[in-house]
Specification:
single chain; mainly alpha; two-stranded antiparallel ribbon; 68% helix; globular
Length: 171
Amino acid sequence: MTQRAPHLEKNMKYALTFVLLTVAGSALAAPHEGSAFIHDYDTDHDGKVARAEFDAVRADRFKTTDANHDGWLSEDEYVGEYSGRLEQQLAVSELTEEKKVEERQRQIRQAHVRFGVLDKDKNAKIVQAEYDASGARAFAEQDDDRDGTVTPVDAAATAARQLAARERAAK
């Protein structure tokens, strides 16, 4: 077996990361997919997301989403908050207006589905614990090397896994 020089291995990894993020970034990304994940949670703009950064954004997002401050999220609050973020993404998207309408409809349908999944006890409320558990799963999925930080390399590996899973499902 041929061994590669360490710098070549590193350069190949960065090239793969670039290609995968470019492909993943060409479509509107859900909030928990690689490049969108880093974009949404990298508050110190260092190109990666530490778990503490992620948790702080999630805590703030829960408070903001809880519009009536009753300590839990209704479906209207949850979908409404996501809809606002989606509209910001669509505003800068290069999709045609027709494709934006399709994407909006698809994403909002999916937000309703996500609410149902996150509401584990099916009481039509997402409480902080349910929201936090969802966040922990999302972070763990993105942190490919399990070091407590999501980097572009982690995001690329996750994107590759997700693409492979979609391709297997499509067969």
